[in-house]
Amino acid sequence: MESLQRINVKFYLEDPASLSAEEAFRIFNSWIPTTPDEVLIDVADYSHLDEGPQTLLVGHEANYSLDNHSAEMGLLYSRKQPADGDLTERLANAFKAALAACRRLEEEPSLAGKVKFRSGDVFIVANDRLNATNDDHGENTLRAALDPVLAQLFAGAEYAVERDGAPQLRLNLRIRCQTDADTATLLGNLAA
């Protein structure tokens, strides 16, 4: 599990209708030339699909998407390239990247403040069936690296973790915390 690199982190929209696939397409396109710390390449429209990515921002190191998996709209960060650090550091960096993108959407002037993310509801997927099995062992191993990140993210507040153990699924964890912290606060917690 220490070799796990492909980490997906999703934060859910408070109001699923607050960001359309068309708006995300336009905004993601504007990020390509204005994001100096990442190589962002292209935007694809998948809004014709009932479930999954609706709008995909393709990057060299990671993809971002407006995602409707399980009929729950949110922003999905999907790391593709290897990253430095141990697994705990890589998980923390994935959370930071996802939260920074959420924050950027929340602050997008053209959306007039209508987009907000549920900061206490996160979905994480280990996108590597070989190195991260969707069983108790895989969960326990991932949790050992993830729990310090969640403790820092939620500033010590209690959280619950659930795994869907269906054999056809990748290792996945749904994390819920009763918090009123916004995305900026969560980002600050991880920077501390």
SSE order and pairing:
Layout: E1 7-13, H1 21-31, E2 40-45, E3 53-59, E4 62-67, E5 74-79, H2 87-106, E6 117-126, H3 136-153, E7 159-162, E8 171-177, H4 183-191
Antiparallel strand pairs: 1-5, 1-6, 2-3, 3-4, 4-5, 6-8, 7-8
Helix pairs in contact: 2-3, 2-4
End-to-end Cα distance, whole Å, is 26 Å
| Count of DSSP strands | 8
Element-level helix/strand string: EHEEEEHEHEEH
Query: Low-confidence parts lasting 5 or more residues at pLDDT below 50?
Result: none
What class, by secondary structure content? alpha+beta
What does the overall shape look like? Answer: globular
Give average pLDDT, whole number: 96
Spatially, the strands of the biggest sheet line up as 2-3-4-5-1-6-8-7
Classify the beta-strand content into a percent band: 25-35%
Q: What's the gyration radius in Å?
A: 16 Å
Number of helices: 4
> What's the story with the biggest beta sheet?
8 strands, antiparallel
Percent helix range:
25-40%
What does this structure look like?
The chain is α+β, with helices and mostly antiparallel strands and 192 residues long. 30% of the residues lie in helices and 28% in strands. It is built from 4 helices and 8 strands. The protein has helices spanning 21-31, 87-106, 136-153, 183-191, and strands spanning 7-13, 40-45, 53-59, 62-67, 74-79, 117-126, 159-162, 171-177. An 8-stranded antiparallel β-sheet has the order 2-3-4-5-1-6-8-7, with helices on one face. Strand 7 and strand 8 form a beta hairpin. Helix 2 packs across helix 3 and helix 2 (87-106) packs antiparallel against helix 4. The longest helix is centred in the middle third of the chain and has 20 residues, at 87-106. The model has no long low-confidence stretch (mean pLDDT 96).
